[in-house]
Amino acid sequence: MPSNLELTETGEVQFNTSEIGNWKFLVFGTGVAPTPFEPRVVSVGLNKDYSSTIHFKNPFKEAITVTITMEAEGENAEIFKLLTK
User: Fold this and answer.
1) CA 20 to 30 Å from 61, out of 44, 45, 77, 84?
2) pLDDT in tens, 11-41
3) How far is residue 62's CA from residue 75's CA, in Å, rounded to a whole number?
Protein backbone atom coordinates (compact mmCIF):
# COMPACT_ATOMS: atom_id res chain seq x y z
CA MET A 1 0.00 0.00 0.00
CA PRO A 2 1.57 3.33 -0.99
CA SER A 3 2.23 5.59 1.96
CA ASN A 4 3.91 8.53 0.24
CA LEU A 5 1.66 11.43 -0.79
CA GLU A 6 4.01 13.07 -3.25
CA LEU A 7 6.16 10.36 -4.86
CA THR A 8 5.05 7.34 -6.83
CA GLU A 9 6.01 4.11 -5.07
CA THR A 10 6.56 0.88 -6.96
CA GLY A 11 6.61 -2.78 -6.05
CA GLU A 12 6.57 -6.29 -7.44
CA VAL A 13 4.32 -9.19 -6.46
CA GLN A 14 5.26 -12.72 -7.57
CA PHE A 15 3.33 -15.99 -7.34
CA ASN A 16 5.31 -19.15 -8.04
CA THR A 17 3.37 -22.41 -7.78
CA SER A 18 3.25 -25.71 -9.62
CA GLU A 19 -0.53 -25.34 -10.07
CA ILE A 20 -0.75 -21.92 -11.76
CA GLY A 21 2.87 -21.35 -12.80
CA ASN A 22 4.81 -18.14 -12.32
CA TRP A 23 2.99 -14.80 -12.27
CA LYS A 24 4.61 -11.40 -11.78
CA PHE A 25 2.68 -8.18 -11.16
CA LEU A 26 4.32 -4.76 -11.20
CA VAL A 27 2.41 -2.27 -9.05
CA PHE A 28 2.70 1.47 -8.47
CA GLY A 29 0.77 4.29 -6.85
CA THR A 30 0.71 7.22 -4.48
CA GLY A 31 -0.84 7.39 -1.04
CA VAL A 32 -4.10 9.07 -0.18
CA ALA A 33 -4.17 11.76 2.48
CA PRO A 34 -5.65 10.45 5.74
CA THR A 35 -9.17 11.43 6.68
CA PRO A 36 -10.45 12.13 10.19
CA PHE A 37 -11.68 9.15 12.19
CA GLU A 38 -15.27 9.09 13.31
CA PRO A 39 -15.55 10.05 17.01
CA ARG A 40 -15.42 7.05 19.35
CA VAL A 41 -17.79 7.04 22.29
CA VAL A 42 -16.69 5.10 25.37
CA SER A 43 -19.32 4.54 28.08
CA VAL A 44 -19.03 3.17 31.60
CA GLY A 45 -21.22 3.10 34.71
CA LEU A 46 -20.65 5.44 37.63
CA ASN A 47 -18.16 4.41 40.34
CA LYS A 48 -16.52 1.90 37.99
CA ASP A 49 -12.90 1.79 36.89
CA TYR A 50 -12.66 1.40 33.14
CA SER A 51 -9.96 1.15 30.52
CA SER A 52 -10.34 0.99 26.76
CA THR A 53 -8.06 0.70 23.74
CA ILE A 54 -8.79 2.23 20.34
CA HIS A 55 -6.82 0.62 17.52
CA PHE A 56 -5.89 2.40 14.31
CA LYS A 57 -3.21 2.08 11.64
CA ASN A 58 -0.72 4.85 10.97
CA PRO A 59 -0.74 5.19 7.15
CA PHE A 60 2.73 6.73 7.08
CA LYS A 61 6.22 5.32 7.60
CA GLU A 62 7.04 8.12 10.06
CA ALA A 63 5.81 8.21 13.65
CA ILE A 64 2.79 10.42 14.35
CA THR A 65 1.55 12.32 17.39
CA VAL A 66 -1.97 11.59 18.60
CA THR A 67 -3.99 13.91 20.82
CA ILE A 68 -6.64 12.44 23.12
CA THR A 69 -9.18 14.69 24.79
CA MET A 70 -12.23 14.28 27.00
CA GLU A 71 -14.92 16.90 27.18
CA ALA A 72 -17.36 17.33 30.06
CA GLU A 73 -19.74 20.14 30.87
CA GLY A 74 -21.13 21.60 34.08
CA GLU A 75 -20.77 19.56 37.25
CA ASN A 76 -19.43 16.58 35.26
CA ALA A 77 -16.24 18.46 34.42
CA GLU A 78 -14.84 17.85 37.92
CA ILE A 79 -15.91 14.20 38.22
CA PHE A 80 -14.09 12.51 35.33
CA LYS A 81 -10.33 12.29 34.65
CA LEU A 82 -8.51 11.16 31.54
CA LEU A 83 -5.42 9.14 32.50
CA THR A 84 -2.91 8.76 29.65
CA LYS A 85 0.65 7.56 29.37
Assistant:
1) 84
2) 999 999 999 899 999 999 888 777 777 877 7
3) 41
